[in-house]
Amino acid sequence: MAEAPGATGDHSPWAAELSQTLSRPLAALQEESRQARLEALAGIREAVLEPPWPPSVLEEVFEKRLLRPLLRCLVGDPAERCRELALELTRQGLSRGAQPSKALPFLMPALAQRLCWPEGDGEACEELRLGLLQLLGQLLRSCEGEALAPYLPELIRRVRLDLPFFSILEHFHLQSESLITPLMQAISHQHYRVRVAVIQATGVVLQFGNVKSLDDVLSHLAQRCFDDIPQVREAVISVIGEWLLHLRDRYSYFHKLIPLLLSGLTDEMHENKELALTYWKKIGLQWEKENEEDIKDKLDFYSVPPYYPQGLTRPELGCRELVTRNLFKILPGLCHDLTDWVEGTRIKASQLLVVLLQHVEDHITQHMEPLLRTLYRVCSDEESIVVRNVFYVTQLFSCVEALIEICQEDCKEISLQLTKILITIMAIPPNLGHLHVKLEEAMNTLAEVQHLAGTVNLYQQHIAQLMEWLSLTHDRWTCYSPELLQLDVIATHSGPVIGEALEGFMPILQTCLQTSIDPRVRLKLFMTLSQLLQKPNETVNSQGQFCNYLEIVIKDILAPNLQWQAGRTAAAIRTTAVSCLWALIYSELLSPEEMMSIGGELMPKIIATLGEDSKMTRLLSCQIIGTFLDSCGKQFDLAKIYPELLNRLEDTSHDVRLSAAKALTSWFKCIDDDEKKALLKNNIGFVYEVLLVHLDDPDQNIQSAILDTLKEGGTLYPDTLAKEIEAVVHKHRTPTYCDQLLLHIESTGWRYSES
């Protein structure tokens, strides 16, 4: 009895019947006669395709009986018609039930062999090559990725070799865009061989497809320049090099492709460097030939400039011209990458910049403004490799030194420009620490050759122009603006001269310290202002004019920035703002009358800063509150002040606790009439209670400070204080301080027996 349709197994009667039918034509495939082989193939097609065989039967017979004989015919039959029929039967067999993945070990070697033309003895007939590639496409659509993965490199190579010989290139051009998305999805595959194959395939697709797709792949290829595997980076170099040599409309894409290839010149693998250099020389020479008339004079009068660095090989003229003519398009993107948040991108960009500068030589002068702005910012980079790659300032400083030495008195004509350059170099953060002494010496020398008494007089000569120079852009500063650092140098190095420039200096501060400005900008400026206010009479108040700007400083600058905002930078700003306020108070720039006028607005903000994480902020806030209480305490709502001060007695900082105790002493002094005393009676009692707890502090200095505070406050309600002492004295380690406190309040006229 025959099995039901669809049954499988070696003993299936249907499979046995089909195998028996195929025995004769399969044997005839070995005949020498072309006609006999054609008849055999026709018999196979008739036996397999015409009866309604179940898929399971066809699958079994195709895999076990037909596949290998058909592939032998496909690979080795000399007759084109026989190979065509064998290919047709193979495709039909795969589409009618066979599992293509099981056939891959036999199919892929056969396809590789037939698709190797013109490398070897492969298929020369274009129609058959098209059929073979269609079979390959059928396999790609029907097989899973894991099954194809081992054959992917060979598969891509075969497709790449065949593309130049297609008679359907125009059709491929129209369809090539559809390949870009899947290729880019696979370009970051975890297996490096797959990444290499995808890059190579991308090269071919763009070479013979729609070049407009280039913009869609460049960012992906740029990422592969950072690949950990050298073979992947090598593939990128090869693809970009081929594009620069052969891509249609390549002139339109030079500015996008050149940076990727030149990045290969700094590859850590010597082989990749050599490959990139080989391609680059070919590209330069090809460009020279294509533009010979345009550069004839430069070719005829070739000379190496005398300033060219020793040890460097000058690039060919074509290479230099290519970079020079495309630099204006390359530089903006490069400047962006130099400040990218990814460290690897910044390093790669800085390495590329060195290569570009070597090519453009003195043509870089027309691009100096955007480049220098970026370099100022990059010189403060945390990554030393990046800084080293842009470390042009040493040479710049040497030029300034040479000018001063040679020109002497004539430097007066360019004194402002030289001063700006020296200030700019001084503004570059600590990476240039070794130059700072020489820079100070150069500033002094520049002053001496002009018969000025010193650096201060040099600043005095140019201070108005320097402030005007900086104020041109101050409303657009970011934390990376070089002007921010230049202002710091001018303000902190000019000594008393900055006091003569308040008319230009203060508007910059007023604008850039608004709370809408980047917190990092505000922090830097507050640090500058805080430093100046440490010795105001030697800096901002050297001419006694700073008092004219106190209202701006307090109301427009300090008060808004004391308002709480989230973030570490905002906290640091509050610290420097508090520091500035304390400096104003400590230096006596604020008179008691002025403190009276600003106290009402500032006191709530200062009280709020008592809870800051910064020890310095808490300490200075306690001191400011104490000073406000001493100067104008009568105007404040005292009930709102003492709770935060009591909390600071629990502070982790010894100094903060001492300062809080001192401020509480000032608080008691403000209660100087019977009305206030009666109103705050309960508050005073609570303060007594808390202070007596801290009177037993393990630290003797704290005990002494609390004792002084209680002595001051104890005169308000001595009876209440005495009762509190009696209630806690037995809990103290020693009654010494309690006894001293009782003796003190008795000495003021109060008697314990009367209590």
Plain-language structure description:
The chain is built from 38 helices and no strands. By secondary structure, the protein is mostly helical. The protein has a domain of 85 residues. The protein is elongated, with a radius of gyration of 43 Å. The termini are far apart.
Radius of gyration: 43 Å
Tell me the strand percentage band.
Answer: under 5%
What is the residue-averaged pLDDT?
80
Shape: elongated
How is the biggest beta sheet arranged?
none
InterPro entries: ARM-like, ARM-type_fold, DAAF5, HEAT, HEAT_DAAF5, HEAT_type_2, TPR_DAAF5
Protein name: Dynein axonemal assembly factor 5
Keywords: Repeat
Provide the fold topology.
Elements: H1 13-28, H2 34-49, H3 55-76, H4 80-95, H5 100-114, H6 126-142, H7 145-148, H8 152-162, H9 169-175, H10 177-186, H11 192-208, H12 214-224, H13 230-246, H14 250-263, H15 270-290, H16 296-300, H17 317-338, H18 343-360, H19 368-378, H20 384-389, H21 393-407, H22 415-427, H23 436-448, H24 455-471, H25 482-493, H26 502-512, H27 519-533, H28 550-562, H29 568-586, H30 592-608, H31 615-632, H32 642-648, H33 654-669, H34 674-679, H35 681-694, H36 700-714, H37 718-728, H38 736-747
